[in-house]
Write a structure and sequence with these properties.
Layout lengths: L2 E2 L10 H13 L7 H8 L1 E2 L3 H7 L2 H27 L4 E5 L6 H5 L5 E6 L1 H10 L6 E5 L17 E5 L8 H14 L4 E6 L2 H8 L2 H4 L24 E8 L13 H14 L2 E7 L6
The structure holds S-adenosylmethionine.
């Protein structure tokens, strides 16, 4: 049985990171090793041909590397949080078919995967919930998903390639609400500046039906986040490609130039926000 992914929807975008993990595991086995991604791609009823063609081009493969590296970075953040909070909730927002919880699972933590109900329906067939794992079908803008999270031992959230599909004010409200609801929690997510979002306008965002890119999330200066909520105790950022493991020395000259371009002009970063520990009341 193959699972259909509807084209030209926000949900379709889950195919992109999945494919990048498959392609990068084939092309850069010394850096990536994700056999699950290949298995999951194989279980989808989806025409991969045009994306495969793109990822075989120089620019396309570079984009794939970035997206695959992003998962590595966010997995690092999850594992880092679990060192101090081994029984914490690991919450993957806009999870698609990403299995970061399983890659980080220490046998004690709790895993939550949140995405639209139709995505979660497919996910439950392809990646059935395991022990201590719960997949939840919600629109992230409907905060009742928060009621389902047991954060009594801490919570670490990731959102990988997700906030670009939310309007900026929605991301702000969501992060504020989370900081109030999950004291001592941490969220890590990827961001780029408005120039980068403008570039995406012609590709992924357009395919997802987003044309009014200006209203959607991008970040020209991460210091702005400090003013979003008094409950953020720390906002830090790192480069995608160099901040967690530096893959720059491993790359050829053209990709080295592209990394520098992205760091300097697109401001592609992993943002990490810590929520204050003290409770509101
Ligand atoms: C580019 S995909 C990334 C999937 C996954 N994070 C990964 O890295 O493989 C974006 C995901 O965000 C989900 N998404 C976007 N907006 C959402 C919303 N408002 N509520 C829930 N999920 C959302 C989409 O359904 C899709 O699965």
């Amino acid at each position: 049985m193959k699972y259909h992914i509807e084209p030209n929807t926000v949900q379709e975008t889950l195919v992109i990171p999945l494919m990048t993990r498959k392609v990068c595991s084939e092309k850069y086995p010394d850096l990536f090793n994700d056999e699950e991604a290949a298995r999951i791609c194989g279980s989808l009823d989806y025409d991969f041909s045009s994306r495969e063609k793109l990822m075989n081009s120089t620019a396309g493969l570079f984009g794939a590397l970035e997206v695959a590296q992003r998962q590595f970075d966010l997995l690092y953040e999850v594992k880092d949080y679990l060192k101090k909070h081994p029984k914490a909730a690991v919450v993957n927002l806009g999870c698609g078919l990403d299995d970061t919880f399983r890659k980080a699972d220490n046998g004690l933590c709790l895993g939550y995967n949140v995405d639209f109900p139709d995505v979660i329906q497919i996910r439950k067939d392809i990646l059935p919930d395991k022990e201590r794992e719960l997949s939840l079908g919600y629109d992230l803008n409907d905060y009742t998903w928060m009621d389902r999270i047991n954060a009594s031992e801490g919570a670490v959230f990731i959102a990988s390639g997700v906030f670009y599909y939310l309007k900026t004010f929605r991301v702000k409200e969501l992060l504020k609400a989370m900081s109030e609801r999950f004291p001592g929690g941490v969220i890590a997510f990827d961001a780029c500046n408005s120039f980068g979002a403008g570039m995406m306008r012609h590709t992924w965002l357009k395919e997802a039906g987003i044309t009014d890119v200006k209203a959607y999330f991008s970040l020209d200066d991460e210091n702005d986040l400090n003013f979003w909520s008094e409950r953020f105790s720390s906002v830090t950022s790192k480069s995608y490609m160099r901040g967690y493991r530096d893959i720059y020395p491993r790359l050829g000259l053209i990709y080295k130039i592209m990394v520098q371009f992205c760091d300097r002009f697109v401001n592609m970063k992993i943002i990490r926000i810590e929520f204050r520990k003290d409770r509101l009341f």
